[in-house]
Amino acid sequence: MRLPDSFLDDLRNRLSLSQVVGRRVTWDMKKTNQAKGDWWAPCPFHQEKSPSFHVDDRKGFYYCFGCQAKGNVFGFVQETENVGFMEAVEILAAEAGMPMPARDPRAAEKADLRTRLAEVTEQAVAWFRLQLKTGAAAEARAYLDRRGLTPATLDRFEIGFAPDTSDAFVSAMADRGVPFDLLEGAGLAVPPEDGRPARDRFIHRIVFPIRDPRGRCIGFGGRAMNPNAKAKYLNSPETALFDKGSNLYNLGPARAAAGKGQKLVVAEGYMDVIALAQAGFDAAVAPLGTAVTERQLQMLWRVTPEPLIALDGDAAGQRAGLRVADLALPLIEAGQSLRFAVLPEGQDPDDLIRARGAAAMQAVLDEARPMLSLLWQREVEGKSFDSPERRAMLDRDLRALLHRIKDPMLRRHYGEEIARLRADLFGTPLNARQDDRPFQPRPRTPWVPGRRWQPPPAPPSVTARASALASGTSDPDLLLEQVALAGFVRHPSLIAEFAHDLETVPWTGGHGRLAAALLSLDPGGDMRAAIDAELGPQPLETLFAQRHLGISPVTRADANGARHCIRDALDRLDARRGADRERREAIEDFDESADEAMTWRLAQASRRREETQRARRDEDMGSDDDVGLSDYLQGLLDTKVWEKTKKK
Fold this sequence. Notes:
The protein has five domains: 5-96, DNA Primase, Chain A; 107-242, DNA primase, catalytic core, N-terminal domain (DNA primase DNAg catalytic core, N-terminal domain); 246-379, 3-Layer(aba) Sandwich (Dna Topoisomerase Vi A Subunit, Chain: A, domain 2), CATH 3.40.1360.10; 388-403 and 410-436, no CATH class; 462-647, no CATH class. The longest helix has 31 residues, at 559-589. The strands form four sheets. A five-stranded mixed beta sheet has the order 12-11-13-14-15, with helices on both faces. The termini are far apart. By secondary structure, it is of the alpha+beta class. The protein is globular and about 95 Å long. It is built from 30 helices and 15 strands. Monomer. Interacts with DnaB. Belongs to the DnaG primase family. RNA polymerase that catalyzes the synthesis of short RNA molecules used as primers for DNA polymerase during DNA replication.
């Protein structure tokens, strides 16, 4: 089976060589230059301690200066996995989330078609460039001169011109013997329709060739000279060569410039990129007539971990920037994000450079803002938060924003920064926010018919609870927290699965520090030793000194058994605190004149929550062992083990 060149090209673009090799080696970051795509490590093919194995991400090749091993991404997988070429492609395709192409007996024919189409586009580049020098292009040359483009820039970007004649290009290619179906296949001609003869796609336009990262001309963009044209800019249609959502204008030269240390700048269109490059900002790219796509973001991150999005200084530019930020939010991770450079109102990069020079553009890039700054501005700018309802709406929107971030550690850092911004907005000290303090459950007072409801006694203070924890006594909530945390310490492989719980559970006292440490430390190492190094030995000594943990299934079962026990403990903890939270909210909604009906509604709310949690456990737990783990926890709660410990 012969795979289409387009499939292999797309696979190479989706997976960088360093990403694939990084699974097998430990990079020497002192010698590595990530910005240039140069990676160094000890060779995976022979035993050595020095980093003589080199990966060139820009070229897609590796070479070992010790054993002379060399190849590309497919060869690396073949060697390290001991598989053939097709199996290597299948492995990489699965990693990239790409389905393998179906067997196609015409694959060779299609590959040949792409080659022939590329030859046609190169002929078109030469023809359009020649037309720019004719008398018919005087107006176009004058326009380019007014935009400040030099002859060297016109040559560098191969800018051309399509005459104001409907079939000039088609006729010229026919004279050269180029079949019309190839012109149509390359997106350069429109077939006869509605009684009209075949015609050129680009008519009376300045033409910009579009090349892929390998330097092949895959399509064109055209800027209309007629101010009344329906479309100011026109791009090639989707063809066997051209996919506008999977390419970027000027990506190849920009990648080379970024490798030499320049910042990668994403502008809106062709003229912005050309103006930036002429001013010395060679690492500039632009999407091809569409909003930035997820595929394009991945291409940008392969060049640099933090591209700069240059936003036009108007409302449309701001909206475009927010669309990019929303698209990127689920994809960002440690070392992979975006920054936003906001230009003066009413100006794009081309306007700014022509008006104030390259220094002004550099100043804008130097002041680029992190992505969170742009998102926060959207949530609060021009809004009033003078009522509890409006503040609650802001909190709801911010929580939704945070939940879209998949990386647990990054989500935690975003949450901390949003908490700081929120405190500043409302003028409250960060440590004084009621929402940031863990909710303390209150003991239930049984309802007796005929007796008016009275508020339950105040819960123990955080200090008192922490003291109880240190002394070895506990309460039901602390007991459940201890079961879950002990399970994570004994089975670190479960941390990623429960990362959201570790972040969001309002842990009590020192449990919060332990949960944060579990999230930040490497689950593949010695977790107990790492926690001792991070927090000292006392937290784990105190935790595992609890009587109930010595016989707990969470510390004695395998990872699967521990998983069910942890989930059950967290569900019970949530049920207890959730029921108490409902009571607290009801208490806040009613004054002391509340009657027995209100008390009955509180009991019903608590019962509904407990039934919901019980149903969830029943769904998750199918085996006798699972039920046993759940019964174990319920037994601890029913027998009040913490009171027995206290009596001793």
